[in-house]
Amino acid sequence: MVEILGYAFMQRAVLASVLVGTATAVIGVYVVLRGLAFIGAGIAHASFGGVALGFLLGINPLVSAIVFCLGTAWGIAWTSRRTEVREDTAIGIFFAATMSLGILFIGLMGEYNVDLFGYLFGSVLSVTPADLWLASVLAVGVLAIVGLLFKEFLFITFDPEMAQVSGLPAGRLYILLLSIMALTVVLSIKVVGIILASAMIVIPAAAAYQLTQDFRAMMGVAVLIGNVSAVAGLLLSYALDTASGATMVLTATLIFFVSALLARHRRRGRVRAAAGMRAAPHGWEGPGPGGRLRRAGEDP
Amino acid sequence: MQPIAELQRVTVRYQALVALEEVTFQILPGEFLAVIGPNGAGKTTLVKTILGLIEPTEGVVRLFGKPPREVGKDLARVGYVPQVAQIDPRFPIRVFDVVMMGRYGQMGLIRRPGARDRQAARVALERVGLGDLARRPIGQLSAGQRQRVLVARALATEPELLILDEPTTGVDVGSSEGVFQLLDELHRGGMTVIVVSHDVGVVAQHVSQVACVNRRVVVHGRPAEVLHPDVLECMYGRGGALVGHGEFPHIVVQRHAPGQG
To answer: ipTM beyond 0.95?
Structure first.
């Protein structure tokens, strides 16, 4: 098992998996907390149109995918803001339209392209040095933007209305968040594929959500789970000779269910501990009907 | 004296529904205004219009003399406490981090909180009596405590104008009295306060003016007038009556009172 790490293709695969595991997990935290899973799936499917166009024009399909994903993210944001159309409706429209464009482009190529399968379902072992470069640039860019605008993204995720009242450019920050989500999707295409890109965004963050009650902790745990899923999935898929993208996503899913069970167990323990004592002995408020704790019942 | 906020013939429509109609009034510095009215009367629409969260269909809104969306940096002079239901109690975040958000607007993009910001957040938390819960995740608070966290967040801004939307909903009577005592203190300290409430009993003891909202807005001036029959009618429809009883006045409402909803 260890000797395979000596191969250049495997080293690239591990590095690409780490980049994807990290960037998707970071973006996933916002996606899970703000309820953007559907828009993530929509943007991921839009990349199909971009990849197909790349093949048709003979350019790097990931470059044209960037254009398509960003265009779709902005299109969805614009449509839901400037028209009476709801955001999920806008997603449904862009999602289908960009997929259709992809199918049209493939038809125009006239010949069946074998590579397309690799983009749909990921082929981490065929990541080229050029792919890795592009992925590194995207990942560094995404992480740098999140690092710089950490407090702003936290604010618009937690309370978008208040963020606007406080004078932050909440609308523009939201579009920037969607944009870096689009870039994250593109960066994951080679590793997990178009179909599964949104899964790698949602699942590690959803698992971390079960385990933490602090924003930074959630992001840290999500990154850990994202990396473990991606790298373990890669090695497992190599050992078992299974599809790498699917194995990564299933590894993440397994971790998600384990953390959901852990969280459930821990909540029960807390509720039992809290049942033995009385809440809020004095002060402004009594326990009251509004005083029931929703998530946990730790002693005050 | 320049009004802090001013509305001139403001109408807000949501498609066919008229939420506010021809509303004209102003808020001068140092006022303590209660916005009351039945559910669905347009109270929240009114404060959101003042804040620029809702664009009026017709009419003119001025906040610090400018249209709300052009106020820019001066928005840091406004503290806003939204309805607590707007906050997801399961969001993984600690009390102190929520309060710190009150500073983000004046900190500016990219900048990190400094000692001055942390100090303001701590003072605000102490002020609402939650100083010892700073590290607690908000999911572990009661609804009343979460409400106070939002008040602290608005105070951390160190605002001149404080706007609160139903700060006593889902909160027991003792806690609600605590909120109003705090607002009283802030008002005496020179802050302009607008509070949306449907709790006339508590409101009556504290505020200097009452804006009665039922699509249209009528402002009643002096505290003596607060429990004027017109105000009660606005709240409870014809047939509402005030009964003095114990510490707080009580409102008795006839069944099938008209004007509700």
So the answer is: no
